[in-house]
Amino acid sequence: GRPGAGMNMAVRLTSRSAQTTRRAGEAACGVCRSSRARRPSRPSAPGLRTLASGSSTSKTWYEEKYERNFQRKKRERVYTGRKDDDSIKVQRVQWYPGHIAKAERLLKERLKAVDVILELRDARIAFSTEHPDLDSWAGNKPKILVLNRVDMVSKYEFRRLEGHFNSLGVEVVGTNGKTGQGVPKLVRRAVSVSSAVNEKRASKGLLPREVRAAVVGFPNVGKSAIINRLMKRKACESANIPGVTRQLRWIKAGDELYVLDAPGVLPSSLEDQTAAQNLAICNDIGKASYLESAIAGVLVERVRGLPKSEEILRTMEDRYKISPKGVTGEEYVYMLADRLFNGHIETAGARMLRDYGKGNLGKFALELPPK
Fold first, then answer.
1. Which of 157, 150, 151 is nearest to 121 (CA)?
2. CA pair distance 345, 339, nearest whole angstrom
C-alpha cells in the first residue's frame, strides 16, 4: 500500500474512538446535570444565610461562623465572680492543649539537673500567673521571681509587688522582654545564686561549670523573649500568642549560663476562674477557650475595683467616645459594638482587649497585693 497509509488509518480510528468517548461523556454529564436539577434542595440550617435585621444583605460566612461559635459558647457552663452578681457572668474558661501535658512531664525530669529556677510571671497579673505546683517541682532549688512586662504597669505598682514578694523572702527582678530592661541584672542574680554549686564542686576537686537555669512560666508571659535577650540574638521563636514554644531544649547564654527553654505550663484544671479570666484578659491563654466580648466585659468590671479606676474609665471614654458609667461591662461592650463595629460584639471585645494589651487604655496592673 501507500507509505503511511497504516498510520493514517490508526489516526482516523483513534479520532473516531475519541469522538465516541467524548459523546458518551457529554451524555453522562447531561444525565448528571438533569439528576441534579431534579434533586430536591437541602433545607438550610436554621439561622444561617438569613437577612440581618434592618438590612437588605445576607450574612457572610464569617459572620455565620462567629454566630455559631457565639451560640455554642453561650451554652457552656457559666461562672460569676461574686455571689448574686450577674455583671461578670461568663462561660467557664478552660484551656489545656496536649503539648503542655507532655512538656510538664519532661520538665519535672529536667528540673533535677538545673541549679536555679527563673519563674516568669506577667507583672499585670502576678498572682494569677503563679503555678501552684512549681514549688513542689523545684524542691529546695533557689528560685528568682521574674516579673516581666514591667512597662505595662506603673512604677508605683511594681514597687508594691516587689515589696510584697521581698517580705515573703522571694527575690524579684523586673524585666521587659521587648527592650531588654532588667536582663543584665537577672543574669548577675542567676549566677550569684548558683555560686554555691561551684563551691561544692571545688571542694571535691572538680572544675567549675556553667550555671544551669530553667525558665518556667505560664504560656505567653514572655519566656522566649527573655531568652532571646539573654542570648543577645533570636534563638527562640517569639510571638504574642500562647503556645509558640512546644519543646524543651538547652541554650548556651554566654560563658557562665546555660538556659533550659520550656513551653508554657499551667494547671490542667483552672479552678480559680477569676485567675482564668485574668489570663484571658492578658492573652496568656488560648482564645479558643473564651468569648472575647465576655472577657472584655470582665475587664471593665475589673477596672472598677482598681485604685485608679476613675482615671482608667476616663481614658476608655476618651478613646471610644462612650461613657462606662451607669452600665455593666457587658452593656458597655454592646454599646461599643453598635457605635463602631456595626453591632459585631466579638469585634468590639477583641478591640478592647487588644487596646489593653498595647497600653492604649493606660498602664496598670489588674492585681495588687494587700496594703
1. 150
2. 10
pTM for this one?
0.70
Hunting for cell 503555678 — which residue is that? 131
The predicted-structure confidence for 312-344, as pLDDT tens digits, reads as follows: 999 999 999 999 999 999 999 999 999 999 999
Distance, first Cα to last Cα, the chain: 112
3-state secondary structure of 366: coil
Q: How does DSSP assign 47-82, residue by residue?
A: TSSPBPTT-SSBPPHHHHHHHHHHHHHHTS-EE-SS
DSSP state of 158: H
Cell 452600665 -> residue: 327
Q: DSSP secondary-structure letter at 1?
A: -
Contact 297, 329 (CB under 8 A): yes
User: Using alpha carbons only, how large is the chain's radius of gyration in Å?
Assistant: 30
Non-local (6+) Cβ contacts of 343 within 8 A are 337
Q: Which residues lie closer than 8 Å to 355 by C-beta, 6 or more apart?
A: 319, 361
